[in-house]
Each structure stands twice: as structure tokens, then as C-alpha cells.
Amino acid sequence: MATLQKQVKTEIAGIMDRYTGAMDTLVKAFAKRRNSTRDIYWLALQASKEFGAIRTHARVMMSRAKRMEPLADIKKSAHDSAEEIDHYYGYRQILDWKLNGKTCTVNRWWDYGDFAEEGGAGPKMSAKLWPEHVGYLELNKKLARQTKSQWVRDVILSNREGAAVAFHFVMSHLPAKDAYMKKITKHEHAVAVDELHHGPEMIDELAKTVKSPRDLETAKKAIMQMRIQELRQRNEQFLYPLSARELAKLEKDFLAGKTPAIPLFSTGKV
Prior knowledge:
It is built from ten helices and no strands. By secondary structure, it is an all-alpha fold.
């Protein structure tokens, strides 16, 4: 069992380190092909996403309190909601600074963070505007629903949120060549530090309860699917700095284990 636990740590962390490398390629494409429209668009959607996360954790907290679940679990939801408030507030401050008094014209941007209470997309989240975003949420639900293993389900649910640290980490390391990027990279570093406990630290916890090599292989396949879809989601959020051909190549390289690994999940350090 000790060998299997070690496999969980090394193999899942290895996938996620290579995923961090793939995400690095994507965000560098954004940085290279930046314009004012892209700067505002992704930032508005990210602020909405964080606002939706505040609401989601608050709902969980209230439900747990109503059911009189353990106090520690209720307080954890409160802590998670407060963490999302910090993230939202930081993104929103930068967005307001960038807009400089102008109205944000991103179409229906508040609806981007409309998450359903049971997970997945809420009724206001538009599959027409953001097909990859909705696709990512629905894929997570589908994969969790399909598996008969509670451990695999726990990996999927953990990786859904835990993978975000890769995005925030590589964003924090972009060249800060102007005032906008200085603000972005500073805030992204703070978010990455907060998100570590959802990602790298959870791998160690999951390794302790792994049941079988088959569960590990199933979980790895699910993680690969989720990470491919998140690359598509982030490319959509950035208004497609990678062309369809470039994104397809990045996905192919990631699936083949050819994307350079950035040691984030294996080290747990930003």
C-alpha cells in the first residue's frame, strides 16, 4: 500500500506539473498577444467567477449550519468564502482601475459566475457565450457521476478546484512590463498562495486513502480530460490568444507527456 500511495503522489503530481507547463504556454500567448479588449474581458470574467465562488461557499456554509454539521466543517466553508472574497475584491479593484470610470461592456459578464448549487452551470451561465466554460463544469459533474469509486470521485472534486493554482501561478510569473501587469502579477501571486491547499496539499491527503491501482488509473484519465477542457476554457476566457491549431498541438503534447513540467504540484511551493 505504501508503494501505491507513493505512486499517487508522484504520478498525479507529475501530470499536474506538466499541466502547469501547458498552462504556461497558454498564458504566455495571452501576454504576447495582449490588447485592451483582452485585458478587460478575461479580468471581468475572472471577477465574476470569484464572486460566484463566494456565493457557492456561502450556500454550503448555510446548508451545513442548518443541518447542524460539525462546527469545524461550517467554519471551513466560512473560511473558503472569505478567501474568495479576497480574490474577487483584488480582481475587481484592478478591473475598476483599468476601466477608469467607464462601464464594463463585456456582454453579460456577471453571468459567468452563475454556478448551480449542486455544481455545474447555473441558468444564467450562457453556453452560447462561453461553451468551453460550461463544458468544463458539466464535464466535472459527468466524470464524478460516472465513477463508482468514492476515492476517484474525491480526486475529481479536489482536482476541479485544486488545479486552479497552476493558472494563478503562471500568471504571477508573467513579465510585469506595465502598470496593469504589475497589479495582475502581484494579485495572482497572492491567489496562488491561497490556492495551494486546494491543489498540491490535497494530493498528499488523497494518497492516504487510495484503494487500488485501478482507481489510480481511472483518476489519472479523468484528470487528463479535465485539464484539457480547462485549457480550452482559459483560452476562451482570454479571447483565444491560441489559434485552434495551436491549441490542438498544445493538447496533443500534454496528452503525450511532452509539455515541459513546472515543479509546482510536486513541490507545493509557489
